Amino acid sequence: MKRLRHYWSLLRRPSVHYSLGFLTLGGFLAGIVFWGGFNTAMEATNTEQFCIGCHEMKVNPYDELKTTIHYTNRSGVRATCSDCHVPHDWTDKIARKMEASKEVWGWIFGTIDTQEKYEEKRRVLAEREWQRLKANDSLECRNCHEFEFMDFTQQGPRAARMHANALAPGQDEEGATCIDCHKGIAHELPDMSGVHQR
């Protein structure tokens, strides 16, 4: 306790040897280093390699993704984990990263570390993600897919009709968003027995 009081008094005492300008400049430079390190860490946790660094992510959701059009397609554009699960806007990204920190807790305790545990939790995990996407109006989907840029003539008749209806004023009374129709687009659907499908 005595040592803590000593350090606290050192922090409170005015500087004897350094000028206010030096301390201000030092604080500014330390802030830049901190900010750069923070953003570097944020971007590092947004890579596909980071996401599939865990065994349970690589052998479960990632292997499913590899069989979908979001992984391999005629245009060669590929969505990574963070493209669909982390918003691109900085403030939304920070909020999502804070929310995702509880997933680290699940990893530590092996919540889905086997195929059996993953299958048992699949519906809970899927519904949580669907609710998140519903709440943010499928923000991550809209980072790449925008109605305004869709060529409905290149879509199948059913898809073109549904997308055109979503654009029509007054048609979207239920607050429909991408995830309402596109569940299972990148991962296998869980057992949906007992759930009404539109």
Structural overview:
The protein contains 10 helices and no strands. It has helices at 2-12, 20-44, 48-51, 55-65, 81-85, 90-108, 115-135, 139-142, 157-167, 178-181. The longest helix has 25 residues, at 20-44. The model has no long low-confidence stretch (mean pLDDT 85). The chain has a domain at 54-181. It has 198 residues and is mostly helical.
Any key phrases for this structure?
single chain; mainly alpha
What's a quick, concise take on this entry?
With 198 residues, the protein is mainly alpha-helical.
- Main sheet: strands, sense, barrel: none
User: What is the strand content?
Assistant: under 5%
Uncertain regions: pLDDT < 50 for 5+ in a row?
none
Topology as H/E string? Answer: HHHHHHHHHH
Average per-residue pLDDT, rounded, comes to 85
Count helical runs.
10
Q: Estimate the helix proportion, in percent.
A: 55-70%
Characterize the overall form.
elongated
Q: What is the CA-based Rg, rounded?
A: 24 Å
Total strands: the figure is 0
Q: Span from first to last CA?
A: 65 Å
> Which structural class matches the secondary elements?
mainly alpha
